[in-house]
Amino acid sequence: MKSLSVMRAVRWWSRKSFPSPSGGAPYRAALTAALLIVAAAAPATARIKAPPQQIILDAADPVIAVELGGQPFRLRVELGQWDVIELNPAAAARLPLAWSAGRHISVGRVTLWGRNAETRLVIEDVKRQVLVAEHGRIAAEGADGVIGPDLLPHATILWRNVAAPADTGTIVLPLRLDERTGISAPAPALGPDMMLRFSPEADVSSGTAAAGAILAQRFDGHFAGASRPLPVLFGVTRPARPIAFGRVPVIAGFRFPDLLVRTADFRGDNALPAEDMEADIVVARVERPQGAQPWVTIGRDRLSRCAEIAYSAAPRSLTLRCAFDPG
Fold first, then answer.
1. Number of domains forming the structure of the chain
2. Is residue 48 part of a domain?
3. Which of these, 73, 92, 103, 106, lies nearest to 138 by C-alpha position?
4. Residue 221 sits in a domain of what CATH number?
5. Alpha-carbon distances, residue 272 vs 149, 223, 228, 261 (angstroms)
6. Are 135 and 112 in contact (CB under 8 A)?
7. In angstroms, rounded to a whole number, what is the distance separating the alpha carbons of residues 28 and 21?
């Protein structure tokens, strides 16, 4: 440390005798005094302040203050976001950056084109270069945008819900980063390639058509209700219909007597229950087929029963402390 080196020099000078124009002792005292002044001016430590290992967020409003491009922003931390900070259009307009055409986002069969740019992110004095994007839609109500947990400098991000019921247990799920589903948990017990996504900001849990088809076959599922629009992302809605199960699956500790299924999205070659789906799949008949992507998104209808949701970066895992369903 700089200050420690100076203090060592002070002690060394104070013990030595040197020839001087005016005599040894007074000269040595003057040098010692001068070095003490330098020591007082030196910083106490040269280390950069390390951020806390854990950040605790209010699950009802998980917003953090950050700096982007030297300007203050408020970003909502979402498990579904990962390598890019998604900004609302008004927030993106505040950044005088070199924007370029960015990658598109597919919301089912709806494609949103956007733009992106590089800038500096600062969180609790920790700086890094990041990619920011905007797609002409509101990404976060009540905030400037959305940030994923991997872009925070903390080892653990904890969402705490003080309104949750008393927890009945804890489940730890290994996570992986998938280019299709983002940060998600493999669930092979539910079917091949099945993935679980966690989205406390989504009102209801849902599944893709492939997930619904696989679960219906495995748990005696059948359609049980009319199709309805399901808000998915950026204000885009997709047709969805509930599938009820004869044998109730337990997914991440929660029972699912039924599941809202996005009937027109990511079905692949999987067959949905044999009923008239004409209204839901007409779009699929005029557009090129989509590959199967079997995932279930667990939303606030279940995750509101979690007192704590903790994301750990290394190794990637999600710890749920919730009021789980028995059996």
1. 3
2. no
3. 92
4. 2.40.70
5. 35, 9, 17, 10
6. yes
7. 11
Q: Does 165 lie in the same domain as 149?
A: no
Position 247: which residue type?
R
In which domain, by residue range, is 81 found? Answer: 54-155
- The pTM (predicted TM-score) of the whole model is 0.80
Per DSSP, what are the bridge partners of residue 55? 157
**Which residues, 6 or more positions from 74, have their beta carbon under 8 angstroms from its beta carbon?**
63, 64, 65, 66, 143, 144
> Are 146 and 172 in the same domain?
no
Are 270 and 181 part of one and the same domain?
yes
User: What distances in angstroms separate CA 59 from CA 294, 298, 326, one per listed residue?
Assistant: 27, 15, 24
The two tokens of residue 189 are: 């017990």
Q: What is the pLDDT along the chain (327 residues), one digit of tens a residue?
A: 444 443 344 344 344 443 443 344 443 444 344 434 434 444 444 455 566 799 999 999 999 999 999 999 999 999 989 899 999 999 999 999 999 998 888 888 888 999 999 999 999 999 999 999 999 999 999 999 999 999 999 999 999 999 999 999 999 999 999 888 889 999 999 998 999 999 999 999 999 999 999 999 999 999 999 999 999 999 999 999 999 999 999 999 999 999 999 999 999 999 999 864 544 444 444 556 688 999 999 999 999 999 999 999 999 999 999 999 997
How far is residue 145's CA from residue 72's CA, in Å, rounded to a whole number? 12
